[in-house]
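Internal tracking record. Fields below are filled automatically when a chain is submitted to the structure queue. Please do not edit lines marked as system-generated. If the sequence contains nonstandard residues, flag them in the REMARKS field before resubmitting.
Queue: standard
Priority: normal
Entity type: single polypeptide chain
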Amino acid sequence: MTARMLRRIPALIAALAVSALAFAPALAGLTRNELSSVGFFPSAGRALPLDATLIDATGASRPLGERLGGRPGLVAFVDFTCTTICGVAANVLAGSEQALSESGDLDHRTLVVGFDARDTAADRDAWLARNPEAATLGTNAFVTADPATTAQLLEAAGLRTVYDPEHDQFAHPAGALLVDTDGRILRALDLVSLEPDTLRSALIEASNGTAGSFVEQAILSCYGWDAETGRYKLLIDWILMIGCTTTAAAAAGFVGFMLLRERRREAGRPQETTAGGGHG
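SYSTEM-GENERATED OUTPUT FOLLOWS
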């Protein structure tokens, strides 16, 4: 673990502790079944609507495709009136982006989309004021849309949220979609646990060969995405497991073949007889 990551741990733990305390009562009005339905469920290979018009914090209105600009990217979804996990997730994302730029920036785009169409520009500005680290992503990174466009984005993203009217809050995942250079969804990433190395590997994978050095692309070819851990894992682990299983099966087959061959040999040998004679 690097010194940079160690410096991030106390702040992250504190933020998660505050978030957990705030989040618990906010979910009191929701059932377990409702909470289990929350998450990202995108269709494999589906593209986000690139013609969707998004308005950023500067007031500029541009389509999603133009904002992504043919680069790999992350499209995060937050609620600008969220009082729990959204700020934590966006702050972690901003920290990983900062670490990424320090280690050698990759040409990519990051957008933070407000998924509650009721939120106003004032709500967004107030949220950014409460989360100054997230604000370092830049004012043009934080975007909203009209209700119809927002619904279109959420449907394409496969984002499922549940509204809690008792607390006027949404239960929702703290995540972002990794999209390739054509705006196609590759997978969802957990923002709260997002590490700079994971972010870099994800963006190189999503770049279709246009980002990262030759060495990085070669190394990434030896890794595969492990959804269980949310990290890239050496494919050699899986290859060795498959190889060991195959070797064991081959050894067992060879032993069985040799035993069968020996039995056939025994069965094909002539029976030995003992010759006897009479004495006169």
